Amino acid sequence: MTVLPDDGLELAGEFPDVPHEQWQRLVAGVLRKSGKDVEGAEAEEALSTALEDGLRTRPLYTARDGAPEPGFPGFAPFVRGGRAEGNTVGGWDVRQRHTAADGTAVLADLENGVSSLWLTVGEDGIPVPALGTVLDGVYLDLAPVVLDAGRETEPAARELLRLYEERGVARDVARGNLGADPLGHEARTGQGYDVAPVADLARRCAEEYPGLRALTVDALPYHEAGGSAAQELGCSLATAVAYLRELTDAGLSVEQACAQLEFRYAATADQFLTIAKLRAARRLWARVAEACGAPRAGAQLQHVVTSPVMMTRRDPWVNMLRTTIATLAAGAGGADSVTVLPFDHALGLPDAFARRIARNTSTILIEESHLSRVIDPAGGSWYVERLTDELAHAGWEFFRRIERLGGQAAALRSGDLGRDLADTWAARSGKLAKRREPITGVSEFPHIAEKPVIREPVPESRSGGLPRVRRDEAYEALRARSDAHLAATGTRPRIFLAAIGPAAAHTARLTFASNLFQAGGIEPVTEGTFEESGASEAVLCSSDALYEERAEAVAGQLKAAGAAQVFLAGRPGNHPGVDSYVFAGCDAVAVLSATLDRMGVS
């Protein structure tokens, strides 16, 4: 997709073409030095990275890795954007979420960069009668309002419409979404609600409020249940198709029904996968609209939220980095609206500082980095185009599976969908446990002595539907055990790191062992003797050569000094006196849990 300049100058023109096979031979030569004897395509495959959904990221993409023509922004299949102008005019809509009846916080956000509001209303958030108070002082003709009210959608929507009338907001000026999502609510809570009033709201919006939508297709419940990107896409399509059927049965045309839907997706710190997911989502919805006979109605309106699954409770400051990458990916992927969750989201209600950082994340990317000045900046990349295509096919296949099960509602109620998501999460949990998917500040480089960040708790989320998972949950359970032990005894559980030989020999593995055990809340001790450490277990840390010479003797000395368990930091081998091994790729959660058990940390 490279366009040559008018003078025809091609910068690579003087260089000979390099065949792909030559590059593969060079790769094979490098791998051979590391002990892998592979040739040709196998050498390239050795450098590939497995993703979920059976996808793989290869080390090199070229013009051979073609993908379907993505088209142009604002035209089917809308891969490059739902609007011809993209977000170039003013950037994406910065949408802040509020769950508490705090009008002061709402106004502070709107006065400092937020352009629309996402309000959780009802039992889990703002009481419906308080909606007017929360929106007091808000210019409803300027700030779009998006509701999330669950079973109270109908009264909340009617209250918002009443406020529009009361405050003199013209019907053709009102913007936002009434937030009806019966299937999303059922996925969250196990309880659905009547679709008939939703159809009435959609009909009213279609006839009287051209800038107001009635329904949200929320894919977050499936993402938060551990689903993959393709499963998130498939669930969103199946939900949207179910809503299309309900709305057209209620008398709306396909075009009117499509115009009543807004799609909500998660953005993770995997920036390229997020970009490809948003591009694939638009392509897939365009295909559905085309199949329904309304190809021009296939421009998907996307609201993207930084992933709650990736947010950590320990070292929450790192969440700022995660949400920055996710927001960049959402903007580059063409999201129409973006919600950046505050860095303390997992801890409770965000404070003013956290909300400020959240909204300023978008502001910096739009105003200082000018990210929105270019439409679809990743378009044309062989990697991104190929990943978009592969993810679209995987998402479509999962959508077809749900349809074969009888549709989204049937798949939810039968438990089939829940089992699919659980299987995906189980596989990912294994990678997290082995630190193949590292979590900075939690499973890697933990700060065991960090001062905890305290926030006002949020109301307990209603259960009964799909589970809500977090990447840090296994390590959080381990750290909680350590915290309880500290509170009860005044000290954390300890482990002695026995460094053998000079610093050049032991530093790498001593650092590895220190990080590993701190991830479970176990304090490493490196100074003094084992008897002075207060520990009951020890880890040998050195080079392979010194292990052969001294591991047996040092392990014997530690056992004689009272060590109940002696680990060796390195690959398993034959070292008398060593009880267990810790190494890159070992099941860290299992090792840490068993260690805490032996130490009597309940």
TrEMBL record:
What is its cofactor? adenosylcob(III)alamin
Output the CDD domains linked to this UniProt entry.
MM_CoA_mutase_beta
Q: Which SUPFAM superfamilies match?
A: Cobalamin (vitamin B12)-dependent enzymes
According to its UniProt record, this protein's enzyme class is isomerase
Q: EC number(s) in its UniProt entry?
A: 5.4.99.2
Instruction: Please indicate if the UniProt record lists Isomerase as a keyword.
Output: yes
Record flagged with keyword Ubl conjugation: no
Annotated GO MF terms: cobalamin binding; methylmalonyl-CoA mutase activity
Q: Which PANTHER family match?
A: METHYLMALONYL-COA MUTASE, MITOCHONDRIAL, METHYLMALONYL-COA MUTASE, MITOCHONDRIAL-RELATED
Q: How does it assemble?
A: Heterodimer of an alpha and a beta chain.
Instruction: Please state which protein family the record places this protein in.
Output: Belongs to the methylmalonyl-CoA mutase family.
Protein name from the UniProt record: methylmalonyl-CoA mutase
What organism is recorded for this protein? Streptomyces violarus
